[in-house]
Specification:
11 helices; alpha/beta
Amino acid sequence: MTIRVLLADDQVLVRAGLKVLVDSAPDLVVVGEAATGLEAVRLAREARADVVLMDIRMPELDGLEATARITADEDLAGVRVLVLTTFETDDYVFQSLRAGASGFLGKGAEPDALLDAIRVVARGEALLTPAATKELIARYLSQPERGTPAAAPPSLAVLTDREREIVAMVATGASNDQIGEQLAVSPLTVKTHVSRALIKLGARDRAQLVVLAYESGLVRPSAHSGYDA
């Protein structure tokens, strides 16, 4: 099945380069280009996109709010947002995950890494593997003025002890295989626990579980390891 991709970036040259790259993959196709956040929201629906490559800084409506509108729209439940950013300068990456993005990737990433990232989020998974994800979230939350959530996170009391344990491990970026190996259970069992946690917490995907794990205090930033479960 061909994955339909929407490009949202206010720079024409950036969109042109992304279009050439995405269209070069046999299983991907660019179905629209947006220069503003408002266009991104509109085209996500009109172009029937599967994945939106979303820049943060755009006119009219920034990528953060555009992401929130897309992920909150029931008619766009199947649309995934992948944020493209520069790790050093963007202060909004954590908010984008909170808003419903399925992950983020640096604009300096290798072409193959970007194509693989699109495929990962299109499958409904979260792009959490790179160490930069954990480091950035931990660094963000370690700053008191930015670490306070906009709203109280849902209580993790609805989870079983094993579900809380697995959510904490998900927050470190561990895969189902890695979690299963550490807990001596099958990856399928881990997937089942993750799915139940998603339903109980009303989370969209694993990226949302990471946000909730940090906001609830289940996982805490650590100056030494980047996180402390």
